[in-house]
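Anyone up for a design puzzle?
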């Protein structure tokens, strides 16, 4: 396989993985009632916290799975 095609596939997989896990974490965060921690009328700040937490959690999970996938592919060099 061409090295450029492989890099392109990894990039597409990484972008898709990040977007997927950010969306999943955003959906999961909706179960929490974070608005009780904020002052009344701070809708924008609450939405911003949901978005930032979703990005932080989703990208962390995605990075873990991408790293785990790369490590499992490199195990063949051990034996």
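Challenge accepted. My sequence:
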């Amino acid at each position: 396989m061409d090295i450029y095609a492989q890099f392109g596939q990894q990039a597409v997989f990484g972008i898709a993985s990040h977007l997927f896990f950010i969306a999943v974490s955003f959906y999961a965060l909706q179960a929490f009632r974070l608005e009780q921690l904020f002052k009344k009328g701070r809708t924008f700040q609450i939405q911003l916290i949901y978005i930032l937490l979703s990005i932080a959690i989703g990208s962390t999970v995605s990075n873990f799975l991408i790293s785990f996938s790369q490590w499992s592919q490199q195990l063949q060099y051990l034996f």
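A detail worth pointing out: The CA atoms of residues 40 and 79 lie 60 Å apart.
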